[in-house]
């Protein structure tokens, strides 16, 4: 059996050091009985455990949960964990798998230098999105809103959907098949459902559902944009497509979620001085009076 080593850097006010932990046989069944007998360290300091979700990350979601549980047992104080997309410092050893930050000031200082592009559920979320970017797929949905909110320092009122990544692409983009092959080779595809308008994948090893919307409207390519090297559709497109669903859905829960998402997107559009473009785009959508009233209600709720 190949040994599984978690190499991490402890960063505290007293200094830094790099340690390696063999977690080959680590399971929750092993951790639970020995929790009380473990020697506690840093009992008076807040701690944060960071996993680096780089492209060659070896950690599974079970590994993340088990390691987090073990570290929580050892530090003996409040500990939270997160997944980041890159190293905290450019000079760090490229074989690092994570960090243990000790002390509130250290946590705040370190996290101000690097923030996850969007909320992470697995160590592979960022890798999958970057693979999509290289294949001409543009992020949409709640993850896109989360990314835009973090970029423009706007609060996002909810967590993005758990393990759900959605993308837009033009029908002319043949690279989408390369994306399917690359993620399929690495993560396995449990379910694949394809039509002329959407490709739905369930990535088996990481339990991530991915939908690729295939757009035949060539005009929408003007809404393609890039944020921090990630391809994402503009807030104008995201607002328009979500509003179309909002006015047509009969699902009360979804309608409520869409309402607050639309408010959030208006905040992003305001910050990017995009109201004129939004007004111009919506004026060409040929909405009826009912839809116009619903749109005015959303705008009025922001005042």
Sequence-ordered SSE layout with sheet pairings:
Blueprint (H helix, E strand, L loop, with lengths): L4 E8 L2 E8 L5 H7 L12 E6 L8 H15 L3 E6 L13 E5 L1 H8 L13 H10 L3 E3 H11 L12 E7 L5 H12 L1 E6 L3 E6 L4 E8 L8 E4 L2 E4 L1 H14 L3 H20 L3 H9 L5 H13 L2
Helix pairs in contact: 4-6, 5-8, 7-8
Number of helices: 10
Oligomer: single chain
Structure classification = alpha/beta
Rg on CA atoms, Å: 22 Å
Number of strand segments: 12
Low-confidence stretches: none
* Helix proportion range: 25-40%
Strand order of the biggest β-sheet: 2-1-5-3-4
Calculate the mean pLDDT score and round it: 88
Q: State the major sheet.
A: 5 strands, mixed
Distance between the termini: 62 Å
> What general outline do the C-alpha atoms trace?
globular
Order of helices and strands: EEHEHEEHHEHEHEEEEEHHHH
> What percent strand?
15-25%
Description:
This protein is of the alpha/beta class and 303 residues long. The protein has a domain of 107 residues. 39% of the residues lie in helices and 23% in strands. The strands form three sheets. The chain has a five-stranded mixed β-sheet with strand order 2-1-5-3-4. Strand 11 and strand 12 form a beta hairpin. Helix 4 packs antiparallel against helix 6 and helix 5 runs parallel beside helix 8. It is globular and about 70 Å long.
